[in-house]
Specification:
By secondary structure, the protein is α/β, with parallel strands linked by helices. The protein is about 45% helix and about 15% strand.
Length: about 475
């Protein structure tokens, strides 16, 4: 049985027109290719359907003048109007149809016949439509020949003089039908595509800016990290950016320093920081690893613990290809802590960063993380380091992270730009806040600045300048280059 949606959750999902329009515009930018694809598919489907089922229709038409024998111009006009009015009755009565069929030697009239008078004149237009151009034209000629004879009992003896005869007809309606079908298909495709965009706008309401999140939760913004694309090395098992080895990521490194400084200022002399996110895929492990590396480059002894026992990834980020006992083995008493800790080296030198990998996936995740052994382990790590960073599972969908909050001094919450649903992010933060833990703030991962670039420069450049011009950062830069 599903849990009822709270009033606050309903407020989060309420449709604000301005917000909806922004969400719609953003969703359209992401899905325009899908809308275009649906439109093209609908047009092609409509085109092939019409061309396969289309039957050509030929229309033979003639304009004639009506002259009543021994009548004047007024009588001629009146007679033309009468002939146009009585034509449907004469045709439906079968008299004219029988005469035409007998004239052509067919069982019936092979086509549809219409006659209309031109108001205010003695002119009459007669047109015949059918599926055979020559036969349709023969029907028209038979009408011109036999209609006066049939109609004379009603309007009197008349003569029809052909003024305009267009000859054997050609099919000119196919292109019009095809164009109409293409337009209809395009409209249907566009409606379906835009409906999908609207649906996405209503369902997938994500966080796309610092202001967007702060309008729902009151926690500090630690900084915005840019998206970094990197080329994979053939001999590397790493799949994420790592500032220890990818040293040419100046924008990312500078943005990370701002985040690190704010976290250090909030923690003060406290040591244990938990890094989590709402759902998987928001880059929390990458942020945790690089935050630990940034602190280590500053000269601190940092221990990074992979507490995501469901999906351990820290070891892979630092090219740990060997076999290590890891956190689960230490908590189960199968290995000593000293044997599980791995010192990260670069060019044969220690970096000050120590890893406690997650190792093999644990079968009892919650029991393992909530055990007294976990608390004792964190206290032991606290005593032997300057800072301990715990990379935990997502907090909005799993309870694993909640088991660790009683052991930490602060929480850094990673939010991937335009990724997780807004409700998940807000609920994840509020669940953590309800425990009383100190939420240091949130980190917007891959955020877009007002200048259009991904990162923190455009937004914070004018306010804070380029962080890293002080003496402490000069020392760190020198230390980084030495490493």
């Amino acid at each position: 049985m599903s849990e009822p949606v709270s009033n606050h959750e309903q407020e989060l999902d309420m449709i604000d027109l301005k917000a909806f329009l922004l969400d719609f515009f953003h969703s359209f930018k992401r899905l325009w290719w899908l809308v275009a694809l649906i439109v093209i598919a609908a047009v092609l489907l409509s085109y092939f359907r019409v061309t396969r089922s289309y039957s050509p229709s030929y229309v033979a038409e003639a304009t004639v003048s009506v002259e009543l024998v021994n009548g004047g111009s007024y009588a001629n006009r009146n007679t033309a109007e009468q002939m146009g009015l009585i034509f449907p009755y004469i045709l439906n009565s079968g008299v004219l149809s029988d005469v035409i069929a007998a004239d052509l030697g067919t069982r019936g009239v092979p086509g549809s016949i219409r006659a209309n008078s031109i108001k205010g004149t003695n002119l009459l237009t007669i047109n015949v439509s059918g599926y055979d151009p020559e036969l349709t034209y023969k029907v028209l000629q038979s009408v011109l020949k036999n209609y006066p004879e049939v109609a004379q009992y009603v309007v009197g003896q008349t003569n029809l003089t052909v003024i305009d005869d267009r000859g054997i007809p050609t099919d000119t309606g196919k292109m019009a039908v095809v164009r109409g079908s293409v337009r209809k298909g395009a409209m249907i495709g566009a409606a379906v595509g835009l409906a999908l965009v609207v649906l996405r706008s209503l369902i997938f309401r994500t966080i796309r800016s610092e202001e967007d999140l702060r309008s729902h939760v009151n926690i500090p913004h630690l900084g915005t990290l840019p998206i970094c694309k990197k080329k994979e090395r053939r001999n590397s098992t790493r799949s994420n950016i790592n500032i220890l080895f990818d040293t040419n990521r100046d924008e990312y490194i500078e943005a990370l320093r701002l985040v690190r400084t704010r976290i250090e200022r909030d923690l003060g002399r406290k040591k244990v920081l938990m890094v989590t996110s709402s759902v998987a895929g928001e880059g929390k492990s990458t942020v945790a690893a690089n935050l630990a590396a940034s602190m280590a480059l500053k000269g601190k002894k940092v221990i990074l613990v992979d507490c995501d026992l469901r999906n351990p990834s820290v070891g892979n980020m630092f090219n740990l290809t060997g076999s290590y006992p890891g956190l689960s083995a230490v908590l189960d008493g199968k290995a000593k802590l000293a044997d599980a800790l791995v010192e990260v080296e670069k060019n044969g030198r220690q970096t000050g960063l120590i890893l406690l990998p997650g190792a093999d996936k644990a079968t009892r995740m919650i029991e393992t993380l909530s055990s007294d052994s976990m608390g004792d382990l964190i206290e032991e790590l606290r005593e032997s380091s300057d800072i301990v960073i715990l990379d935990t599972p997502p907090s909005a969908v799993l309870v694993d992270a909640m088991m660790l909050v009683k052991h930490v001094d602060g929480v850094a919450y990673v939010v991937m730009n335009d990724y997780a649903r807004r409700r998940y992010v807000v609920n994840g933060i509020e669940e953590l806040a309800s425990t009383g833990v100190n939420i240091t703030g949130f980190i917007l991962n891959g955020g877009k600045t007002s200048s259009g670039r991904y990162g923190y420069y455009g937004r914070y450049g004018s306010k804070y300048g380029y962080y890293g011009t002080g003496s402490e950062d000069d020392k760190e830069r020198q230390h980084h280059e030495h490493k």
